[in-house]
Amino acid sequence: MAFRIKRVYDPPAKSDGMRVLVDKLWPRGLKKTDAKLDLWMKEVAPSTELRKWFGHEPEKFAEFKRRYKKELSKEALGELRKLGNGKTVTLLYGAKDAEMNQAAVLLALLKR
């Protein structure tokens, strides 16, 4: 199984395999048809409270990661693992920071 992450605003590519949005909110200014999603898994996104608390402030990322892992359900993570069974799955996110976002945390968990 091959998991990767990509910003949802970047152009879709054949190499993306299955495209899964892992944000709770729909990305601003993006048409649903342009996103070329296979699945939108809101259930793996951080809670609204956690997302607002984090606010993409780099100094809060370590604590965000800890809290996010704690609130992630084993079932949701298991669903993601099943999707990647023998396939490429690209986890899509809307954040501007490619390293400090929930998709990066999910990727690290899935690669374990």
Features:
single chain, 112 residues, four-stranded parallel sheet, 16% strand
Would you spell out the secondary-structure blueprint of this structure?
Layout: E1 2-7, E2 18-21, H1 32-35, E3 39-40, H2 48-54, H3 61-71, H4 74-83, E4 88-93, H5 102-110
Helix pairs in contact: 2-3
Care to describe what's here?
- Helix content is 37%, strand content 16%.
- It has 112 residues and is of the alpha/beta class.
- It has one domain.
- It has a 4-stranded parallel sheet, covered by helices on one side.
- Helix 2 runs antiparallel to helix 3.
- The model has no long low-confidence stretch (mean pLDDT 95).
Radius of gyration: 13 Å
Our estimate of the beta-strand percent is 15-25%
Roughly how much helix do the residues carry, as a percent range? 25-40%
Q: How many helix segments? A: 5
The main pleated sheet reads as: 4 strands, parallel
Average pLDDT, rounded to a whole number, is 95
Count of all domains? 1
- Report the principal-axis shape: globular
Write the element-wise H/E pattern from the N-terminal end onward: EEHEHHHEH
SS-based class: alpha/beta
User: Uncertain runs with pLDDT below 50, 5 residues or more?
Assistant: none
Strand order of the largest sheet: 1-4-2-3
| Through-space gap between termini | 12 Å
Summarize, please.
The protein has helices spanning 32-35, 48-54, 61-71, 74-83, 102-110; strands spanning 2-7, 18-21, 39-40, 88-93. The chain is α/β, with parallel strands linked by helices. Helix 2 (48-54) packs antiparallel against helix 3.
